[in-house]
Queue: 4 jobs
Job 1
Amino acid sequence: MKNLLLASALLFLVSCNEKASKTNSNYPAGTEPEVNIVEQGKVLFEGRGNCTACHKEDQKVIGPSIREMAQIYKTEKADMQAFLRGETPAIIDPEKYEIMKVNLEITKAMTDEERAALEAYIYSFAP
Ligand code: HEC
């Protein structure tokens, strides 16, 4: 009986943990995302997304720097995941949107979790 209680307590803890790691899909300004989701975003940003080709940490290359994107989206309280789904217009550099638009095909094909991870990674550069 005691063991059974212990086992169900453990099970409860484990399922709570699982939930906790999945609740980061909409990262609001001011709260810290978990390190693992940021790491996952970094991997996508540098790997499959190929975002680093145009977005560097601090300097503008072809696209705005990651820090600038984090700063502006945070200040404007804009929805980056919606942008990555192709649903909202560019707010940083609308004249160059055509260059970015092509890459939205990649992010549109991603899952909600993957877009949330990209956002969490970018937001980890916010001041
Ligand atoms: C070929 C170059 C290029 C690549 C690759 C690229 N981007 Fe961009 N990106 C741009 C340019 C140029 C802009 C500025 C135009 C704009 O604001 O939409 C931009 C803007 C953005 C913005 C700001 C949108 C806004 O509201 O103005 C975000 C967020 C962004 N990119 C995310 C990404 C992510 C995530 C990836 C990888 C999946 C990526 N970009 C890959 C060129 C690129």
Note: The chain has one domain: 2-123.
Job 2
Amino acid sequence: MAETNLKIESLGAGGDGVATSHEGMPVFVPLALPGETVAVEIDDGRGKLLWIVEPSSDRIKPVCSHFTQCGGCTLQHLRAPVYEDWKREQLALSLAARGLETKVSPLEVGAIGMRRRAVLSATRTKKSVMIGYFKRSSHELVDIHQCPVLSPDIVEALPALRKLVRPLLSRKNIARISVLSTQGGLDVVIDEVEPVEEASQRVKLVELCAGLSLARLTVSGEMIIEKDRPYISFDGLKAVSPPGGFLQASQVIQDKMIAHIQELVSAGKAHKGRALDLYSGMGTFSLPLARYFKVLAVEYDKTALSALRHAIGLSEGLKPVEILERDLTIMPLSAFELRDYDVALFDPPRSGARAQVAELAKSDIPRLIAISCSPASFARDARILIDGGYELRSLTPFDQFLYSTHVELVGEFVK
Ligand SMILES: C[S@@+](CC[C@H](N)C(=O)[O-])C[C@H]1O[C@@H](n2cnc3c(N)ncnc32)[C@H](O)[C@@H]1O
């Protein structure tokens, strides 16, 4: 492969620098920044960065020594205001692709050490255990010893997690370790390993837990030990997460999103006193909404709903929260069922809420709040709502996934 110099023109959606080859074709160069001249080897539209001939003044020193190797982060080398504007711009571009134009508010920023949930992989080598993330677009695991993005209690636990997972690993398997930092300690879930069948194995695991600030350990779906309840909180309201259950990745960003949503909903008039929380999970938003409204929480995951039921039992002073178990893709709430609400919030998975949004578009609910981790599916759903007579009044990005290319957002629609 020939070596060549290229001028980087922009930063693509995947966080790579984008240049034009001498033949006029786009070339994606990981770790290169707009304005830089870089020496690369080009292979099939991808440029391998050899060295930086002329660096950008927006280039900064990454906060982590694993950056460039570990696939967990993409954008540690970009100065903060430019990074923040780039995230906003990704949102504007997704909307523009659907013919929509809206003012995007400044990015609600996070900070290092804020990620409370990590899904790590672990494998055994001849002498030790590797724990970490995969290299980008690769099955090669990077053994991490620091991670400035993660909550420090998770990083401190890495040596003890290596010891804990070791007896569960064969030479071949790659275990998945989900770690959640909770008020009671770490909630650790180990999957992709053989079930723990022998009592002696269980005793050994419990012994190894002594080295961990642990709340609960679950292996292959079986709870091995619960030293403390893995409490989490939504706007100060207590809940217990089921092992490996969905939670917003950062507590700080979750709290900022809740505060923003409360501000939006309390600005409107509550004629009916009722709110809907669609795709409620275990109630991240249902419980805080119940400070203002009677809430109907709709979700298809039984485990999440039983955690919500439990959390309702723990909380005091809230308006009633009702629960409906329903698959909103197969059977969305119909426009008829959507009457009599002041506000509906929807927080679907990455694929969005196409079927449900088609019904919401026909409804007369005066305010809709959309939460999304995918600007592309959000823009598609926003188009449906706007075509149904809604106005996208505000749109705020949140930096839930620091240094990644992901953008979380809260959009407010009114009719
Ligand atoms: C992004 S999570 C949001 C959960 C919750 N709002 C929170 O912030 O913790 C999406 C939720 O949608 C649920 N879900 C996914 N597909 C669904 C469907 N077809 N019908 C109902 N719920 C669904 C998932 O189980 C998950 O709890």
Note: Residues 117-232 form a domain with the OB fold (Dihydrolipoamide Acetyltransferase, E2P) fold (CATH 2.40.50.1070).
Job 3
Amino acid sequence: MTTIKDKMNHKFRNLEGGLFLDVSKADVGSSTEEFFLAGGDNMAWADMFYPDPSIPLSVKKATLACVEEGSVSHYTLPIGLGKLREAVAKHVEKKTGLSIDPNRNVVITPGSDSGLLFAMMPFIEEGDEVLIFDPSYPSNFLNVQLLGGIPVSIPTRFDENYQISIEELEKRVTPKTKMVVLTHPNNPTTVVYRKENLIQLTKFIVEHDLVLVCDQAFEDHIYDGIEFVAPCTLPGMWERTVTVCSLSKGYGLSGYRIGYIYTNDVIMDVLYAATVNVCGAPSTISTYGAIAALEDASILPSYTTKLEKRQHTFYEMMKDIPGVKLHKSESGILAWLDIHALGSSQEVAQYIMKHANIMVNEGTPYGKEGEGYIRIVSCTFYEEKDAILRYQRIKDALIALGKEKGF
Ligand SMILES: Cc1ncc(COP(=O)(O)O)c(C=O)c1O
């Protein structure tokens, strides 16, 4: 008799838990719930201002109106309501200068996690190799494996501010390489790849005739005047890039589960068929809220100002801790700390959990290069004073651990 596991597709058979292991595995399991119920704080979920209410008024009104006028109980269009796709197209144009057709180049997805899988699905065949910058979002590695591909890690380094090395790419490209996956800005490092670096990368992609999946979930808040360039706008890239975005991170609307993909007509035709088949239609109530968010020009600039200040405060509090190294966050709501000198990712994350009563992420799920790092979601809590109280507890714990280690 075979076991039920034996019946499983080999790509799934050895999966365990969620994306995260050990301490951070808890964030999908019951021990997390226990930790939170016992008063522990959560700075491990990339969820802006969590756990505080932070819905913009325009979004709240549109959401309530959807209930009041009754459309809440009905389907939207399978590829997403036209009005939402139009608002997305306008947003993309404002952000990138790219003029896209809301009826041919955009599909709405339930968040960008599913969007990432959909973006890869039409391309990856058994044994295809996919170049993934390391560290980066854990789904990048897992999605490729689930589709039968082979993730190939391309290391990026603290001392080079995690920019992409073409030498490292050239060393690993083979006739089986099909795709590059870029998380831009990056999660967990927060790095925004610079224009010169992206020009080199996209030349490499065109020369080797590869496909690019670009995850721009964190594109909406970039700090210190750094320029954001969307790779699909660079020469030769529109025809080979699938760009995946979300309202979760920039608008702080993770609970709405609205993301979108934009790409050329040829790829989109396939995605229209594939996503509709799996997702049905995006949530109606969330669609109303998302349209209001995209049409309210005041939300993003006010959040950027607030978050940039928060990131500076975090950096100033953490930068002189013995045994800890970090760059100032360049985007979004995260911070990435090099804690090699204090111990392993697991040891330090557990120490913070025990002594500061705060859950942060181990670096290891973000790739081989993640060992010796921790990720902290620095932009949790709406009020800066509430965040600072937690920063101080983390700082005290790291200083105490440093003392134990002889710093
Ligand atoms: C880099 C990156 N991409 C995509 C996602 C998925 O977010 P959502 O499905 O809420 O759009 C996340 C969530 O943490 C992320 O960090």
Note: The CA atoms of residues 78 and 281 lie 4 Å apart.
Job 4
Amino acid sequence: METIVEQLDLPSPELAAAWNAIKIPGTVRERLLAQSVLAFQLRQKFSFEVIPVHGLILLSGRPGTGKTTLARGLASKVSSALKGQKTKFAQIDPHSLTNSSLGRSQKEVTKLFQQVIPEYADGNPCIVLLDEVETLAPDRQRMSLEANPVDAHRATDAALAGLDLLTRKHRNVLLVATTNFPKAVDRALMSRADWIENIGEPGPEARTEIINEVLEQLATVWPHVVDLKRHVSSFTAASEGLDGRRLRKAIATAAGISVETASDLNKLKKEHVLATLKTFLQTQVTEEAA
Ligand SMILES: Nc1ncnc2c1ncn2[C@@H]1O[C@H](COP(=O)(O)OP(=O)(O)OP(=O)(O)O)[C@@H](O)[C@H]1O
Ligand SMILES: [Mg+2]
């Protein structure tokens, strides 16, 4: 299995679109970008001993809150801010390092930080997405020695050591990590993050934007759907607590309430959308209780 699942030259239109797809408060957006640009600046001008910045930004939050999408968008934004420098992007799948026998994963993890990333960056500014980082550096304190052989500990040790070495030697690499399970991430990795952003469920403004966006998209094919925009405030009120992924899905699949509406989305009514949102919220609550 390939460790790098995607590689791109930046800025990329696809990644720039990802940045806009996620509706979050402007303050959060600005802070993420500022922290990332700052990490590049400081690391290119000072040694780690003087300014101990690792070049690691962590996005934490519940499933479906847009972390992966946002991290990809951030990469493109950072590259635009670094004006004129050729910048690269790589997305790492940490699962590819642990599928092999545990003994090998330690070796693979070391290789990722000491060889795969530096070779790919090749001296250029490079933004590396470590998606679902709890797989790469699981919390050693949660591992029981019986259930998890010593090798699993060693793989986390290797991730931390590899990160430290990369940090010192390759000042042009910025790591953006995501997790929907921060308790499962090793604390020593969390401690190395220069900035941790907790991404929450979308607030009312964000929900309104998401709902309008999905309705407008549907209306490009079924023009009457646009009439539903009159009820967006009801939809916003009825969707409190849904994550961005569930909300997009709820609006998009509301027509699944009957074969008639599914066949012609022009027949989609306010009540259908409200009923679907209610069902989505109920199933979400049930999942949480489970
Ligand atoms: N705040 C938001 N605004 C708009 N869309 C959102 C938002 N949050 C999530 N989405 C949508 O939900 C989908 C899932 O997003 P993404 O995969 O980035 O979430 P994630 O936080 O990485 O989830 P997971 O923890 O399950 O990996 C995307 O289509 C994204 O556009
Ligand atoms: Mg994700």
Note: The chain has twelve helices and six strands.
